[in-house]
Specification:
The complex is a heterodimer of chains A (161) and B (408).
Chain A: H1 5-13, E1 16-22, E2 28-38, E3 43-49, H2 53-60, E4 63-70, E5 80-90, H3 101-117, H4 119-122, E6 131-145, E7 148-153
Antiparallel strand pairs in A: 1-2, 1-4, 2-3, 3-6, 4-5, 5-6, 6-7
Chain B: H1 2-7, H2 12-19, H3 28-49, H4 54-74, H5 77-82, H6 90-103, H7 111-127, H8 130-137, H9 143-181, H10 192-211, H11 216-219, H12 223-249, H13 255-263, E1 266-273, E2 276-286, E3 291-296, H14 300-307, E4 310-317, E5 327-337, H15 343-360, H16 362-368, E6 385-399, E7 402-406
Antiparallel strand pairs in B: 1-2, 1-4, 2-3, 3-6, 4-5, 5-6, 6-7
Helix pairs in contact in B: 3-4, 4-9, 4-10, 6-9, 7-9, 9-10, 9-12, 10-12, 15-16
The chains are: A alpha+beta (161), B alpha+beta (408).
């Protein structure tokens, strides 16, 4: 089974995602990020600084949610969006020579994806020295348009139900 | 140097009391109670020795009570201003430093208004109002008694002077602060907590004025003095109320953030319970002081917020053509959920928030009111849509890729 088209369109058609994490005291943190979506494995990736509050929160509590939406200031019935909830993995960080081949490959792939999606913005900027890739393993997704909702659960292998 | 300057922020009274045992040995509130007791005992003993009428004892005790209540209020100024953090605006910081400098000047200007009340009062009492003196102490009072009463009068006059001194200075400080706040640029501001302190000090002074009402029975025999004290009460209360009102109007957000919050149409709310975060877009309004958003009674986030009051609230400006100009502000803190119980005390605040929603999102309001919608979405104000206020304890601001933490 595949995810509904509406969800796919939102996740592929938008540039900003709003990532919410929380620390061990359950105080939330919310920031906009650039992200790429991987439909095959039901994952979302974003790049952030390893010293950021998000990374600190994720190391305390890996639960995460990301919201991607279209907003219409005039007609609320056109408001449309997806919220994905799941857990976050931070790809290990270290001097490039010591990283395992798969991690390096992941870095290359994700970076190329980002480059093609955000070409206008990132131009030829390389990954920064302190940048890490955060991988969201989606477990649940909610889609809404106006007052109507749809939701799906996603298995560990990326299966949709 | 800073340290010694801060320590010197004391009035004569605080300094003296701070040095004499047993007052210097106990905490500040306790030492005031101790003083009350001390004066009261001396007064009662003198009253018994010189065989005073019980009404005289009552007036004396009332005078002591007023002096002590005043002290409790006014002596909070020092400790509060001592922990005051510097505003993030050069002009506002200079203003507050000047305010503190005059208030706690090493020449002790604060005693001048007290003297200006004490001297004419004593002259009046001995030359024109012997009847009042007789009413208080009987005919031909003993010199010891006169000295004690004189001391008590000085105590009261000195504090009356402090009341005038602090409320006039407070009004001046509030007016200047409001004016300077209009000229702020970018991230200049005085933090929220500090503005709240100033407002609380002003409200203390309003109470100070109200407490003065207790002096009326003591002076009731003399119409002229009664009139003077009523004028004094009106003066202190009104000045402090105006000052508190003006401070309440000073924006607690720097202009960059203020404008972003003012102009944006949407926000995102992050809630969480047992470590599972949840983020959704919301509509919100800002009245210059408080931020409100609106949620359906059935919404997941409302249920989550009822279990964990903490929230994150993000407002941003997104523009793909120039991301280095993008701005965002994140408020983290607590949510105040408005319900039926808030109607009696906060009706005005709730109605004005509702009015702002209607003004900011006219189409939303129209569309929400149609009856074809699911019940939870219909705009039956307060009943189906719940008003939530964001009470921030931290503010983080991004401009382009630069992150700035703004004190609250």
């Amino acid at each position: 089974m595949k995810i509904p088209d509406e969800m796919r369109n939102i996740l592929y058609g938008n540039y900003f995602g709003y990532v919410c994490t929380c620390n061990k005291k359950d105080q939330q943190h919310l920031t906009p990020v650039f992200f790429v979506y991987d439909e095959q494995f039901q994952k979302i990736f974003f790049i952030t600084n390893e010293k950021s509050k998000k990374v600190k929160n994720i190391s305390e509590n890996p639960n995460i949610s990301i919201t991607v939406d279209i907003r219409d200031p005039v007609n609320p019935f056109n408001n449309e969006g997806v919220m994905a909830q799941g857990t976050a993995d931070i790809t290990e960080k270290g001097p490039i020579y010591f990283l395992p081949e798969e991690t390096l490959q992941l870095y290359r792939d994700i970076y190329l994806e980002f480059k093609s999606k955000y070409q206008a913005v990132i131009e030829n900027r390389q990954l920064g020295e302190n940048d890490v890739i955060v991988q969201i393993n989606i477990e649940k997704m909610v889609y809404w348009k106006g007052p109507h909702f749809k939701s799906v659960r996603i298995g560990k292998d990326g299966s949709v139900s | 140097m800073d340290q010694s300057e801060k320590k010197e922020m004391k009035w004569i009274y605080e300094e003296i009391v701070g040095r004499i045992p047993p007052f210097s040995l106990v905490s500040y509130q306790f030492s005031i109670l101790l003083q009350l007791l001390f004066l009261l005992i001396i007064g009662l003993i003198l009253g018994l020795i010189f065989n005073l009428r019980s009404i005289s004892l009552f007036y004396g005790s009332l005078g002591i009570l007023v002096a002590v209540l005043w002290s409790l209020l006014i002596l909070q100024l020092g400790p509060t201003l001592r922990k005051f953090r510097a505003p993030l605006s050069k002009d506002e910081n200079e203003l507050l430093e000047r305010y503190k400098g005059i208030l706690f000047h090493s020449n002790h200007y604060e005693a001048i208004p007290g003297l200006a009340i004490f001297i004419p009062f004593m002259l009046y009492l001995f030359y024109y109002a012997r009847g009042l003196l007789e009413y208080w102490l009987g005919k031909e009072p003993n010199i010891v008694l006169l000295i004690f009463v004189g001391l008590l009068i000085w105590d009261i006059c000195y504090r009356m002077g402090l009341g005038i001194w602090t409320s006039v200075l407070a009004l001046w400080r509030s007016l200047c602060l409001k004016k300077l706040a209009e000229k702020r640029t970018e991230l200049e501001h005085t933090p929220y907590t500090e503005l709240k302190y100033l407002r609380r000090l002003d409200i203390n002074n309003v109470l100070f004025g109200i407490i003065s009402l207790l002096l009326l029975p003591i002076l009731q025999e003399d119409q002229f003095l009664t009139m003077i004290i009523i004028l004094f009460i009106l003066f202190v209360t009104m000045t402090s109320m105006i000052s508190a009102f003006i401070v309440g109007k000073v924006p607690w957000l720097p202009p960059d953030i203020y404008n972003l919050v003012r102009e944006s149409s949407f926000a995102y709310v992050g809630t969480s319970y047992k470590g599972i975060p949840h983020a959704t877009p919301v509509v919100y309004v800002f009245d210059g002081q408080s931020i409100f958003f609106n949620t359906s009674k059935e919404a997941k986030k409302l249920k989550t917020m009822r279990k964990n009051r903490k929230v994150a609230f993000l407002i941003d400006k997104r523009d793909m053509s120039n991301i280095y100009e993008n701005k965002a502000v994140l408020f983290t803190g607590e949510a105040k959920i408005y319900g039926i119980m808030d109607i009696p005390l906060r009706t005005f605040k709730m109605l004005s928030a509702l009015h702002l929603f209607i003004k900011k999102y006219p189409e939303y309001t129209k569309k929400y009111s149609t009856s074809e919608l699911p019940k939870a979405w219909q705009l039956t104000p307060i009943i189906a849509r719940i008003l939530v206020e964001v009470i921030p304890s931290r503010i983080i601001y991004w401009r382009g890729a630069k992150q700035i933490s703004v004190p609250v």
